[in-house]
């Protein structure tokens, strides 16, 4: 019953409104009986009610509207003319419909409302023809009702046939009319009041139900239930838009006032401004809520899409939805509808395998496509996940090379995550065959463009054999976004919070140590993970005005990758109102818009995606190029020039480890080290990580009573080992190293690095000491990047 | 919008709002001009074309400011002198032009119109529809569409 409740409720709301319109229309019709437009509108309304009541099994309602519709269709086609008597019975019909609806609303059923009298009255009024105008009995001629104006004795069955035909014609007409009115509605962007014209014509089209499905006032403690039709109103979206705009301005003004008052000592003023602050926030929230709709509005169409597509592709697919109630702005909802549908189609078409292949892979023959939506730190995350074959990064890369989208050399430099993101390149499709579903190479890039156009982001994750997840991050609303304001070279810029992960501030002393150079590119070691740094001043071609050596890093996320944006200062987090910028500025491709800050100055909003693409790609490419060059040289001349990680292992000994074999640097609590047989292991990210203590491995004896162990993690082909050192000292360039050969166990030799003799670790031996099976699992060279 | 875009320069009568720039008198059709403001705080836009002087806050709206001196290939405005901002509205979008000073609104007659003088160099020539011969001086009619299309 619950599911039906919603439908009935919506039906009631809609019908009540339509009936009010009908009263007006019918009375107006008496003044101008020839207005086909009005008649068509009335006809459509009744027809809609008839259709829905039939569907909801309100038989008496259907009966009344059916005869009413008969009469209206004949009036509309000019077979009958409108007399005051006919108007009266039509109004009577409207009254009956209304009382039926009231009964449905209060009791859930049609109750005891008697309809036979009205039906008889309408039938009588139809036959009570003073002029010889009655329908022709020939069904063939009925297709052209206008031509069928021949006087005949009206037999009930015949009337029925003609009317049915007429209804069909009318139904075909309706879409056209709807289209027209739709156009009207759309063209109202220019804030004119044209919608008033559309109002009378299209009661069903265009305007959405404000807060549809929300206010179901449950009768509590015997309180009188508010009539459904009275508890909601339809509001023009334009009106909401302009309200939103005003609220945006209010928020700006609020920010200004709060900023001023912050410097004031007048307690009354401070209190008043606090109240203003609170009210403005609540108002903003309220107005935003009026535009919110559950994502189910666009999801509800997807089961059908999945079913049809599944049949078409010969696949059985179950669609699961989590977080249907997640709400987001109507405009955004509309904007993600097509991209989402595309992703779902993609998931069924490309993602999920045929039942045979699924069975062969040991999976359930029925594929599962999961839609997930949730709120996460001021944004909506929507995931489309399939449990299909996943994306084969190798094939994807090969395809990209074949299409000329990247060169083989570029490909070899890409990480697996980067390779996956290539599906968003224009002109890319991995479908072996072009089907009429997908595979034409348009799509994913369009999806991405559309999502980015609304300030969202998209990323894809895939595990071969396990499935693919496309993750959309969408702002809650377009107009007002929370943002971080930063300063760079004297100007302020806004960074949408949607991309921001954290902030790191380093004082001069720390920055000097923590910001390192890897192949000429600055990186920061953020909890052991190397974070590429991009200086905003470099990107913008400006000179920083910060000379005290402090480094402020905004850790940003774009397309599944993290990077640190170095700015001069962090100013504030505030809600900003996004203003469009002119074409010239859009073309720069670094700014997604501009905003007016609390003090009235204009600040540019950085487009983090574009920024990452612009700064990171070139930078990582450069970096990887140099790293690769270094690796190539090292192969040629046995590490003649290589970046080395220097570590102390106790007893004053220093060991150098080639940096390209280092995956991560971690710290592990000594007490978390466990023993398996005679080996030491530690639990790390859900896996067991074998440990080799370098001091013991190399016959040095460091202080073993440390609480925290410095660990160098080396990973390859899904296996990792941890190399424990006493202290991580530095990253140096192994360039001018002079080495002497010492034939010691576990060492390749020694060199002078940083003015001191340093031992060169035989990484392979060290790893084998920790995990003798490390290289046995896979013999492919370690440089293969196509697997995680 | 009654704006001549790709049509060849043609003589039109009407009113031009005039302004001075590096000693010359220019005019734009009065119907394009929304308002004239004193010098405003500009937010610079890194990497923007050189003619984009920055962004101004026009009562909550963000409007791009075009430096007409740069656009017309004139030397930069001398230090210490403030620009005047002419806000023009084209296709519903407001754009502002930075000029030296604002002058009168002038009635022009199509009979006084001539195509741009040959002495105008390439860059400026594109943006000038032609010249009206006024008493004692020339009034250069600016093609606003092209001028803001930096």
UniProtKB/TrEMBL annotation, chain A:
Source organism, top-level taxon: Bacteria
Histidine kinase domain: residues covered: 273-478
GO BP, one annotated term: chemotaxis
Enzymatic reactions: ATP + protein L-histidine = ADP + protein N-phospho-L-histidine
HPt domain boundaries: 1-107
Name of the molecule in the record: histidine kinase
Alphabetical list of Gene3D superfamilies matching this protein: CheA-289, Domain 4, Histidine kinase CheA-like, homodimeric domain, Histidine kinase-like ATPase, C-terminal domain, HPT domain, SH3 Domains
Signal peptide residue numbers: none
Residue spans of biased composition, Basic and acidic residues class: 185-200
InterPro entries: Bact_Chemotaxis_CheA, CheA-like_dim, CheA-like_homodim_sf, CheW-like_dom_sf, CheW-lke_dom, HATPase_C_sf, HATPase_dom, His_kinase_dom
From TrEMBL, chain B:
One Gene Ontology term, aspect cellular component: cytosol
Signal peptide stretch: none
Domain called CheW-like: residue spans: 13-150
InterPro entries: CheW, CheW-like_dom_sf, CheW-lke_dom
GO biological process assignments: chemotaxis; signal transduction
Gene source species: Geodermatophilus tzadiensis
Protein name: Purine-binding chemotaxis protein CheW
SUPFAM superfamilies assigned to the protein according to its UniProt record, in alphabetical order: CheW-like
């Amino acid at each position: 019953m619950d599911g039906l409740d919603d439908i009935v409720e919506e039906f009631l709301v809609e019908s009540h409104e339509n009936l009010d319109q009908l009263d007006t229309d019918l009375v107006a019709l008496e003044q101008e009986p020839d207005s086909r437009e009005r008649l068509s509108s009335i006809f459509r309304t009744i027809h809609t009610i008839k259709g829905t009541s039939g569907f909801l099994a309100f038989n008496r309602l259907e009966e009344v509207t059916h005869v009413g519709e008969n009469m209206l269709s004949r009036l509309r086609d000019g077979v009958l003319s409108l007399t005051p008597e006919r108007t009266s019975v039509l109004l009577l019909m409207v009254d009956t419909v209304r009382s039926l609806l009231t009964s449905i609303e209060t009791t859930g059923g049609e109750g005891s409302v008697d309809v036979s009298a009205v039906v008889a009255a309408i039938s009588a009024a139809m036959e009570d023809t003073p002029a010889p105008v009655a329908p022709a009995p020939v069904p063939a001629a009925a297709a052209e009702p206008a031509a069928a104006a021949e006087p005949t004795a009206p037999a009930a069955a015949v009337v029925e046939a003609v009317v049915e035909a007429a209804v069909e014609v009318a139904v075909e007409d309706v879409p056209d009319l709807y289209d027209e009115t739709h156009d009207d509605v759309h063209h109202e962007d220019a804030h004119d009041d044209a919608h008033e014209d559309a109002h009378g014509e299209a009661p069903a089209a265009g305007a959405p139900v404000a807060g549809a499905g929300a206010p179901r006032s449950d009768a509590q403690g015997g309180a009188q239930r508010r009539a459904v039709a009275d508890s909601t109103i339809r509001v023009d979206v334009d009106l909401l838009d302009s309200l939103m705009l005003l609220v945006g301005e209010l928020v700006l003004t609020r920010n200004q006032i709060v900023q001023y008052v912050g410097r004031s000592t007048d307690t009354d003023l401070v209190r008043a401004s606090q109240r203003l602050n609170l009210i403005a926030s609540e108002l903003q929230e309220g107005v935003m809520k009026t535009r919110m709709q559950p994502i189910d509005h666009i999801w509800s169409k997807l089961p059908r899409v999945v079913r049809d597509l599944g049949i078409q592709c010969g696949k059985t697919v179950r669609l699961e939805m989590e977080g249907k109630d997640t709400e987001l702005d109507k405009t955004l909802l509309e904007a993600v509808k097509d991209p989402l549908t595309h992703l779902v189609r993609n998931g069924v078409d490309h993602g999920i395998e045929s039942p045979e292949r699924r069975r062969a892979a040991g999976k359930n023959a029925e594929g599962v496509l999961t839609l997930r939506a949730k709120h996460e730190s001021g944004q909506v995350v929507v995931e489309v996940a399939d449990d299909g074959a996943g994306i084969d990064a190798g094939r994807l890369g090969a395809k990209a090379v074949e299409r000329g989208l990247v060169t083989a050399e570029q490909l070899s430099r890409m990480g697996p995550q980067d390779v996956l993101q290539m599906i968003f390149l224009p002109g890319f499709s991995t479908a072996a065959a072009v089907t009429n579903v997908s595979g034409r190479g348009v799509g994913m890039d369009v999806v991405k463009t559309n999502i980015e156009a609304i300030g969202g982001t998209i990323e894809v994750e895939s595990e071969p054999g396990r499935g693919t997840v496309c993750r959309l991050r969408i702002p809650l609303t377009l107009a007002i976004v929370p943002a971080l304001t930063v300063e760079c070279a004297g100007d302020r810029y806004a960074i949408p919070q949607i991309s921001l992960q954290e902030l790191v501030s380093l004082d001069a002393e720390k920055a000097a140590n923590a910001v390192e150079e890897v192949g000429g590119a600055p990186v920061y070691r953020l909890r052991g993970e190397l974070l590429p740094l991009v200086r905003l001043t470099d990107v913008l071609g400006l000179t920083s005005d910060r000379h005290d050596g402090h480094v402020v890093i905004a850790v940003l996320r774009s397309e599944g990758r993290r990077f640190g944006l170095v700015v001069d200062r962090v100013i504030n987090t505030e809600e900003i109102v996004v203003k469009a910028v002119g074409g010239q500025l859009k073309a720069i491709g670094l700014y997604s818009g501009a905003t007016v800050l609390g003090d009235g100055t204009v600040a540019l909003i950085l487009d983090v995606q574009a920024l990452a693409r612009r700064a990171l790609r070139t930078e990582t490419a450069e970096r990887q190029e140099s790293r690769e060059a270094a690796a190539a040289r090292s192969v040629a001349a046995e590490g003649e020039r290589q970046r080395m990680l220097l570590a102390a292992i106790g007893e004053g000994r220093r060991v150098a480890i080639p940096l390209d074999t280092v995956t991560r640097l971690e710290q592990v609590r000594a007490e978390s080290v466990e023993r398996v047989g005679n080996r030491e292991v530690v639990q790390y990210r859900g896996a067991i990580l074998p440990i080799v203590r370098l001091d013991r491995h190399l016959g040095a004896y460091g202080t073993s009573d440390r609480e925290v162990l410095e660990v160098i993690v080396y990973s390859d082909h899904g296996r990792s080992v941890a190399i424990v050192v006493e202290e991580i000292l530095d990253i140096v360039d192994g360039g001018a190293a002079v080495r002497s050969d010492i034939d010691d166990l576990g060492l390749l030799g020694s060199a002078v690095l940083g003015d001191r003799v340093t031992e060169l670790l035989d990484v392979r031996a060290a790893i084998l000491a920790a995990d003798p099976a490390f290289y046995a699992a896979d013999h492919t060279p370690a440089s293969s990047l196509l697997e995680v | 919008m009654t704006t001549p875009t790709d049509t060849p320069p043609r003589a039109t009568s009407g009113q031009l709002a005039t302004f001075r720039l590096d000693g010359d008198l220019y005019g734009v059709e009065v119907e394009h001009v929304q308002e004239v403001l004193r010098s405003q705080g500009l937010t610079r836009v890194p990497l923007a074309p050189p003619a984009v002087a920055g962004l101004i806050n026009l009562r909550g709206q963000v409007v791009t400011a075009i430096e007409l001196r740069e656009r017309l290939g004139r030397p930069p405005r001398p230090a210490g002198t403030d620009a005047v901002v002419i806000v023009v509205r084209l296709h519903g979008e407001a754009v502002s032009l930075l000029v030296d000073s604002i002058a009168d609104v002038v009635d022009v007659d199509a009979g006084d119109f001539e195509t741009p003088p040959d002495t105008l160099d390439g860059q400026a020539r594109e943006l000038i529809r032609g010249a009206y011969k006024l008493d004692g001086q020339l009034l250069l009619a600016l093609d606003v569409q092209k001028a803001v299309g930096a």
